[in-house]
Amino acid sequence: MRKRKIHVNQSDEDNGAETYTQKNKKHSRTSKRNSKAVAPVEEPKFYCPICMCPLTEETSTKCGHIFCNSCIKKAISHQPSCPSCRKHVTASDLIRIYLPTTE
Q1: Where is this region: Disordered (predicted)?
Q2: Would you list the DSSP string of 22-80?
């Protein structure tokens, strides 16, 4: 981006008026001084929609919903469908996944 100079009259300069580039220079100096270090972003935590606890042994259904392994196995033993979208799911359709943010 090109900087443009705005010309002011001598009388305006005496009254404290500044050119566009002078204002930008002051702003860039103060913004550098006032910038603060950004805190590191926390890793997201994923929760099981069945037990509402942090995921343990993350397992995905064929429709892509993620649950605790024990929770989804119990759920499909009672009713062979995904608890989130009700698509037909069997134990052989479950896929163990490994999320980097879980312990």
Answers
A1: 1-37
A2: HHHHHHHHHHHHH--PPPPPPPP--B-TTT-SB-SSEEE-TTS-EEEHHHHHHHHHHSS
Residue-wise burial string across 36-51, b where 16 or more C-beta atoms lie within 10 A, e elsewhere: eeeeeeeeeeeebeee
Q: Where along the chain do its domains lie?
A: 1-36, 38-103
Convert the pLDDT of each residue in 37-52 to its tens digit. 777 877 778 899 999 9
- Between the alpha carbon of residue 6 and those of residues 2, 16, 28, 30, 64, the distances in Å are 13, 14, 18, 21, 59
Q: Which helix (H) or strand (E) holds 96?
A: strand 95-96
Does domain 38-103 fall into CATH 2.60.120.340?
no
Q: Alpha-carbon distance 44 to 101, whole Å?
A: 7
Would the pTM of this model clear 0.85, i.e. be above it? no
